[in-house]
Amino acid sequence: MTQPHVLIVGAGIAGPSLAGWLTGQGWRVTIVERARSLRTGGQAVDFRGPVHRTVLERMGLWEAIHERRTRLGKQTLIDASGRALVELPALMMSGDVELHRGDLCQLLFERTRESVEYRFGDAPTALCETPAGVEVEFEHHAPQRFDLVVGADGLRSNVRSLLFGKDTDCLKHHGYRVVGCTLPNALGLKQRGVIYSEPGRGVSVTSAHDEEQVRALFVFTGAPLGPHERSPASACDAVSAAFAGAGWETRRLVDGLREAEDTYFDAIGSVHLSRYSQGRVVLLGDAAWGGTLGGQGTPLAMVGAYVLAGELLASPESHADAFSRFEARMRPYATPAQDGAKRVGGFFAPRSRPGLFLRNQLYRMLTSKPLERVFEKLVTHAANAFELPDHGGGFATPRA
Ligand SMILES: Cc1cc2nc3c(=O)[nH]c(=O)nc-3n(C[C@H](O)[C@H](O)[C@H](O)COP(=O)(O)OP(=O)(O)OC[C@H]3O[C@@H](n4cnc5c(N)ncnc54)[C@H](O)[C@@H]3O)c2cc1C
Q1: Residues in domain FAD-binding (predicted)?
Q2: Looking at residue 282, what DSSP letter applies?
Q3: 301 in a structural domain
Q4: Do the domain assignments include residue 120?
Q5: Is 263 inside a domain boundary?
Q6: For ligand 1, mutation pick of 36, 268, 286 (most atoms within 8 Å of CB)
Q7: DSSP-H helix ranges across 220-352
Q8: In a domain, 284, yes or no
Q9: Which ligand 1 atom is at minimum distance from the Cα of 13?
Q10: What DSSP assignment string belongs to 131-185?
Q11: How many Å lie between the centroid of ligand 1 and the Cα of residue 31?
Q12: What is the mean pLDDT of residues 155-169?
């Protein structure tokens, strides 16, 4: 394969991260993104421990990320009167460095836009593998052949459906729903957050860059959601029903949701696949191993992109070997991280009063001085459980 041409589907985090490594070595990369422009929505994402940091440093992004960090401090579990029950250290909720997903997305785009061909407002509709490559049909663009295709198109990956069939039931539901949005900072929070929980429902409110605003996250028990049930209006109805009669400031927050402009609504689940690739097509990031919340999706996508690029650059003539080495490295790292997505609903909204009591007791104990080190290990263990290879490649740099 000389100068391979790779199609990456999805301009989120995983796609541009991989593209930067490949174009850095002279590969030709096209990214097709279904949205008409970069999707810079989302709440904060964080990085923790030396594995994440090393990848960011090798990408040359560590300083830029630091400059954009949220500086969020402690978050507090509170009761209905707003009284602090437990103070959670910043490391638990915000890692070593945290930034808004949109800032990261923009940063990756800026770093890769000159070397990568970006096509917005389009998506593949069919993939057909031939001995010469993958013939791809698009919604808008004329059909085109690529040497390799990477599905970096998120939790509900269409590439995954095209590859393994639409009915593959790989998105497992964990019994909760989540609604995120930006609201006015009526609580006067500054570089901190609060979490209020009742059985089966909980709301987290954290300060944002703009001191006039906060990020709110409503987590509540509920069934999986169909593709047409995730609109902002459905989110308002679902939250109003789930939080009816809830205490503390919840009523005000629920009322505020009606005015929010960036409402995000999803069910909490995670992706479980028996393999990440087939033929010349491979899945990366949330498409391969994602979880809605709490599964370290962003750093995993960036570590995964680094590893996949390394394996492809090591054997450009043999994508099959590269894909299987990529999966052998990533699966043992990504799978345990999915436990976070399984547990996150129960953390924000334990299902029963005894469950709520136990959560508070557990975190009171874990955050006590004598257990400081143990707790630190617990919240960084999954992130650190990886031996990062060094492929020596260079990440795309924009022209001066
Ligand atoms: C708008 C948005 C907000 C998010 N907010 C948060 C958050 O607050 N907290 C958090 O932890 N995680 C959030 N995530 C998920 C987080 O970005 C991922 O878990 C993680 O960064 C892995 O990234 P990814 O690139 O694999 O997936 P994503 O970041 O989800 O990117 C996937 C990209 O693929 C595009 N796409 C989807 N289908 C197609 C298609 N058929 N053809 C072409 N393109 C397609 C999407 O538009 C998207 O740009 C959000 C994702 C998005 C898209």
Answers
A1: 5-319
A2: E
A3: yes
A4: yes
A5: no
A6: 286
A7: 232-242, 250-257, 286-289, 297-314, 319-348
A8: yes
A9: 25
A10: TTEEEEEESSSPPEEESEEEE---TT-HHHHHHH-TT---EEEEEEEEEEEEEE-
A11: 14
A12: 87
The CATH number for 151's domain is 3.50.50.60
Count of beta carbons in the 10 Å neighbourhood of residue 358:
12
Q: How far apart are CA 329 and CA 306, in angstroms?
A: 11
Mutate to test the pocket of ligand 1, among 7, 8, 9, 13 (most ligand atoms within 8 A of CB): 13
Would the pLDDT of 221 be above 90? yes
Give the strand order in the sheet containing 124-130: 124-130, 133-138, 144-146
pLDDT score for 129: 96
The CA–CA distances, whole Å, from 24 to 17, 28, 118 equal 11, 10, 16
Ligand 1 lined by 151 (C-beta under 6 Å): no
Residue-range definition of the domain harbouring residue 143: 5-76+97-170+271-342
Closest CA to 268 of 141, 171, 386: 171
With H, G, I as helix, E, B as strand and everything else as coil, classify residue 15. Answer: helix
Please name which of 44, 42, 37, 49 lies closest in space to residue 11, comparing C-alpha atoms: 37
Instruction: For residues 287 and 118, give the distance between their C-alpha atoms in angstroms, rounded to a whole number.
Output: 19
Distance 79 CA to ligand 1 centre (A): 33
Which region, left, alpha or beta, applies to residue 175 given φ > 0 means left and ψ of -120 to 50 means alpha?
Answer: left
Pocket lining: 286 vs ligand 1, CB cutoff 6 Å = yes
Does residue 15 register a pLDDT over 90?
yes
Cβ neighbours of residue 33 closer than 8 Å, sequence gap 6 or more: 10, 11, 15, 39, 118, 119, 120, 121, 122
Ligand 1 site-directed mutation target among 7, 31, 37, 39, most atoms within 8 Å of CB: 39
Query: Quick one: pLDDT band at residue 3, thresholds 50, 70, 90?
Result: confident
